[in-house]
Task: structure prediction
Amino acid sequence: VIYFDNASTHKPFDCVVKEINLFNEKHFFNPSALYKEGIDTSKIIERSRKIIADKLGVQSDEIYFTSSATEANNWALLNGFKNKKGNVVISQGEHASVFECGNLLKSKGVEVRWVKLKNDGTIDLEDLDKKIDNDTTLVSVIHASNETGAVNDIKLIGNLIKSKNVKTRFHSDGVAAFCKIDCINSALRDRGCDFYTISSHKVGGPKGVGALYINKKINIGPFIVGGGQERGMRSGTENTGAIIGFSKAVACSCWVHSESEQQNNLARQIHDYIKNTLTQNGWILNGSINNTGYILSLSNPNIKAEILMRLLAEDGILIGLGSACANKLSQNRILNALGATKAHIEGSIRLSFSPLNTMHEAKIVAQKIMEKQKILQGKSIK
Ligand code: PMP
Result:
């Protein structure tokens, strides 16, 4: 199988699986237990927290483990806006786990202002500027789009928000950016970003664990109360093996560590090769030139992408059609927001890459897509 749907979920790295198995055999103890075995387990969790904090350029006690990025986004959005007053500003390019929080807030009477996207998939900064006022308590803008890979300049956005209203809090969903672009050189605190969401299974860790960065200066209530785990902010016995696996994946040397690696890595070479080949053969790029390099969204209005996806799957090539966790309606939401027509949306595919992919695979996939495309276009002409 050639797997080009890594933004849906990434295969856990072999070293991650080994580490989790070893951990579950030897350190299954409850990290809250006061005997040595429990204390040792809790120290291992703290080591994991430090690895993740270092990757983001923040402090360990600003990282809170959650069950998923969905949970982290719910926490930031639903508890993050101060005193539950004022308006909330959210971009139209958000993942469902932020978008639906916006709808929930709206149903509870909160004024939610949606910010437009430009047709390259990034946020419309002029519209953002207009939507923030003295009563804006929270802004949420995705760091990199999980649909198109387009990267928002969250340092610039953070500065813009704070210059309009210093009290406004800024959340960014970093799931599609974390480990794919360099986060250290633009540390979250410097960006004026108060909350940042990440997910383990998008970076070669296990499913069922994510984390929320919360700027130390921010006062936000617990999301889940109970036994007081995660410094009283998110109770529930820690998913210890998954947390260890998450940090092992983050520490993997194949992820991006610097600005130069961000510009030139294998995923980007694969991305550019397929993009160049297919755009010369009738495909249109959705999204920005300023892309993580790990996601490629293309449209061909002359074909039905769902049929193409099935034909490729029969040949052992797995690709995506927009966000895998979205239903049909919201699947189109992002491309719709950047002005795509119905035919364009129905003809859209999402290829997403991993450091485990190869150039050889890229060549096969590009070739196969062109072959199937010919068959499908032939059919639609008849
Ligand atoms: N945000 C983005 C940008 C995502 O792509 C996803 C996963 N599709 C999520 C949040 C939700 O992540 P999780 O599966 O960990 O809940």
